Amino acid sequence: MSEPEDQKRLRALEARIAELRAARAPQPAKADGHTLGQAAWRMVTELVAGLLVGFGIGLGLDALFGTRPWLLVLFTMLGLWAGIRVMMRTAEDIQRRSTQAAGSPAAERGEDDRG
């Protein structure tokens, strides 16, 4: 074989390798049609919303009953708990959808990994 022909075959091989690598490159993960960054902001918003709602209810009840700061503290803690619970439920939903999208055998059988 001649040198120019080898160079031509080498370039064709490199182009094919680059094409295959681009096809196999992982795509950004999606959750509900959004990126995982957007899902993370959604979870942060849920947590903060729970805190604010609990704070507002506690503050309002304290003003109504004159029990400052007991109901404020109680309902702020309840709001935190509710926000964490909703955030964890959202994370489980995202994980379940991503395993189903990946075609996991456990997801196809309807199993989950919660023991």
Write a compact overview of the structure shown.
The protein has 115 residues and is mainly alpha-helical. It has four helices and two strands, in the order αββααα. The termini are far apart.
The mean pLDDT is 85
- The SS-based structural class is mainly alpha
Q: Describe the global form.
A: rod-shaped
Characterize the main sheet.
Answer: 2 strands, antiparallel
Order of helices and strands: HEEHHH
The strand order across the widest sheet is 1-2
Beta-strand content estimate: under 5%
Low-confidence spans: pLDDT under 50, at least 5 residues? none
Helix content: over 70%
Number of helices: 4
Overall radius of gyration: 26 Å
Amino- and carboxy-terminal Cα gap? 62 Å
SS elements, strand count:
2
Description:
It is a single chain. By secondary structure, the chain is mostly helical. It has a domain of 68 residues. It is 77% helix and 3% strand. Strands 1-2 form a two-stranded antiparallel ribbon. A hairpin with a 2-residue loop joins strand 1 and strand 2. Helix 2 runs antiparallel to helix 3. The chain starts with a helix and ends in a 6-residue tail after the last helix.
Features of the shown structure:
115 residues, mainly alpha, two-stranded antiparallel ribbon, 4 helices, 2 strands
Question: What is the strand and helix layout of this fold?
Answer:
Layout: H1 3-24, E1 30-31, E2 34-35, H2 36-65, H3 70-101, H4 105-109
Antiparallel strand pairs: 1-2
Helix pairs in contact: 2-3
